[in-house]
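All the exercises in this workshop are built on plain-text protein records. A record pairs a protein's sequence with a compact description of its fold. The structure tokens are whole numbers drawn from a learned vocabulary of backbone shapes. Once this layout is familiar, the rest of the handout is easier to follow. An example says more than a description, so a record of this kind follows.
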Amino acid sequence: MPTTEMRMTIMKRRKRNNRMESTRSLGETALSSWLMLPKRCSSKVVRTVYTTKIINNHKDLMALVFYGTEQSKNPRNSFKHVYVYHDLDEPGAKRVLELDSLRGEKGALLAAQTMGSGETSLGDALWCCANLYSDIKLRLAQKRLLIFTCRDQPHGDDTAKDRQARTKAGDLKETGVVIDLLHLTKAGGFDVSLFFRDIISQAENDDELGLQLQPCDKLEELQKRVWAKERKKRAITRFNLCLGEGLNVAVGLYSTMVTARKTAIRLYRETNQPVRSKTRTFHTQTGSLLLPSDIKKAQVFGKRQIVMECDEVTAIKKFEDPGLFLIGFKPMERLKVHHQIKPASFIYPEEDEVKGSSCLFSALMKKCKEKNVFALCRCTRRRNYSPRFVALVPQEEEVAEGKTQITPPGFNVIYLPYADDIRSLDPPRRPCATQMQVDKMKAIVTKLNFKYRCDAFENPVLQQHYRNLEALALDMMAPEDMEDLIMPKVDQIDRRLGILADEFREMVYPDGYNPESKPPAKRKPAATAGSAEKKPKVEVPEDELRAHVKNGTLSKLTVPVLKDACKQFGVRTTGTKKQELIEALISRLAS
């Protein structure tokens, strides 16, 4: 089909509250949406977006629309040459398979037969997108529109269509839609300034508005498969950082790292619908249902059971209101690595809660950084939570070359142990290494040193799990290949070390040591006079066995006794199960 054909995708994200039902009721749901208009040759990018969103956030709603087509298919058929291929809905395996049918030569033929090629009107396409947004009867938190094209002048010399597209793009931007351009390769370069500089939202860099000889860098970001669940960037809780009497800073507490796990959904086997578990408490003697008011809690102390009401337990747990309370400052060298008792959190100022929080927070962070100190505080995260000592370690903002933020400014919250949490160890004494052995190991460590970044390594178990799910859902012959990034690169390690490993082994281990050989099997100690002797075999007389056969009580004998009886009478049996031994003995003794 001609290059005038485009396609469009709309994505809408629904924010769910864990305490609420998974219903789409107004007022309980916050949504965000993206919109994309890609060219046909970018179908691989659209497919990647589909499959990635299924894993990252399957609650995103997406639609696929072609424009510049001969056939028309859109709500109320209001626009010619605009074809809605996928309605607004959650992405699934069926949609990915339908998109795969448009790839390759057969896919191009199918698209030509289904949609054809017609006039191009970007204004009609944007108007159709606006209608799709307005048909959503839910509050949208964010709207984004991505345009894929290889033509910097889609309407040629038609100024009326250019004016219509600029007007509609302005209307969309006024309603909060962010419009981005992802241009493709074009002979002679793609000049954004000819038409699309008035269509897209404000560019981050003025260099993006000129002549572009290479495809947009954002295409590479969309082609990257990120096999990970997308987490909401919201505060765990919000409270005040008390610096003194009457001096409070409103901050939000964030979790920067959470262990990613596989999530399982329980389904009813007959209808395949999700089920919900419900727990009830019953009286052990009468079997009657117990209400929460009927239940009390107890604690054993001094061999006595102390019974308490639930309200008393709640009052005992409460120490103080949630918040951070400054105790003092300590030099950074006093904070050790082993003092971190749990994953750290992060705090950032909340200007909406208390005016001036950002200014005071920034000043405190800069002074702590200049003096190389950390703030020691008492932290109570929530009501009825136990207070903990924490260290607030300042963190300055880091920005990459493209003005992309790498690390945000704020304080890392390091949770410190109590005296009760510290354990004294009594490790066994081992011979100390010589100075030559230590120097040799230092050389090995220097050779194998590399820059570690935690975001460069993915969990291979989760990656393989998601690939297997995709292969099953899309009827693929085999899952997509996965690279296990945590496997050691043995060849590269051997090249770096050279003969250092052999020299270290000769210095530390005895001659002839082979780390791959199995250790010798341990001999069993000789039986002593006081040790328990092996029980003698119990032989059952033939008359007793025949009586068991006659009375049908062979099943009362143990398997070892039955095996010995089979050997005694020369009964051959290939099985080792009890029923097979009984049947073999019955057939032998009954004859």
Summary: The CA atoms of residues 345 and 413 lie 5 Å apart. Residues 159-174 form the longest helix (16 residues). The two ends are 86 Å apart (CA to CA). Residues 1-41 have pLDDT under 50 and may be disordered.
